[in-house]
């Protein structure tokens, strides 16, 4: 009997000590934390939890987790986490849950939980990633719009480049024709000039011949 009482006392002391350390750590955490007993009743909650989910200690401590906030935590995904997944795995990381609360509206939460069998306690960390999700959604929409604009602009530029290339070919063709025309004109000038020169030489030669003939 004494041994049984001694073990019960040891378990109680260990549980109280573990709870003390847990509370010391979670009180300064930025995420919301809950410490639950094996029946899923709330033993402790940190200030962040009260602030984020707009609840008070009086309506939180000693209450069944699912009944908090008029049953707002009675979420199927959360039940699955605490009643099916956690008991088997003992540790659950980055379990995402989305829920619409009556008082604070829609929230997207990232849950991390650990079951400590030696002291029969469950520690549950709840990270509110609602703003992060919204930001990522807006960023994705912005990137999609930007890609659409870039694609449209690229298509427009490709069409413009094609048009310029066509104009360039046309202008180059004209330039080549102009060069050929200039060459033809120059050749004609040379022919005309050479033709005039021969005419003069012929005339001068006849005149000289005439003079020699008279003498």
UniProtKB/TrEMBL annotation:
Domain PAS fold-4 intervals? 29-134
Q: Which Pfam families match?
A: PAS_4
Name of this protein: PAS fold-4 domain-containing protein
Q: Which SUPFAM superfamilies match?
A: PYP-like sensor domain (PAS domain) (SSF55785)
Q: Which organism is it from?
A: Candidatus Nomurabacteria bacterium RIFCSPLOWO2_12_FULL_41_10
Annotated stretches, region: Disordered: 187-215
Q: Which InterPro entries match?
A: PAS-like_dom_sf, PAS_4
Compositional bias annotation for Basic residues: 205-215
């Amino acid at each position: 009997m004494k041994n049984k009482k001694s073990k019960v006392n040891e378990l109680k002391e260990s549980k109280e000590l573990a709870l003390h350390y847990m509370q010391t750590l979670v009180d300064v955490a930025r995420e919301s934390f809950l410490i639950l007993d094996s029946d899923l009743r709330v033993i402790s909650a940190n200030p962040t939890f009260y602030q984020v989910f707009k609840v008070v200690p009086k309506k939180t401590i000693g209450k069944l987790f699912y009944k908090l906030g008029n049953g707002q935590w009675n979420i199927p995904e959360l039940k699955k986490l605490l009643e099916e997944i956690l008991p088997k795995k003992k540790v659950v990381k980055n379990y995402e849950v989305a829920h619409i609360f009556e008082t604070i509206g829609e929230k997207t939460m990232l849950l991390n939980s650990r079951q400590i069998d030696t002291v029969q306690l469950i520690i549950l960390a709840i990270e509110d990633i609602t703003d992060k999700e919204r930001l990522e959604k807006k960023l994705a929409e912005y990137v999609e719009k930007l890609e659409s604009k870039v694609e449209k602009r690229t298509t427009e530029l490709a069409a413009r480049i094609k048009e310029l290339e066509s104009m360039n070919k046309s202008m180059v063709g004209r330039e080549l024709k102009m060069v050929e025309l200039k060459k033809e004109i120059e050749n004609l000038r040379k022919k005309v000039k050479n033709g005039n020169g021969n005419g003069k030489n012929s005339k001068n030669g006849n005149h000289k011949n005439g003079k020699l003939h008279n003498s």
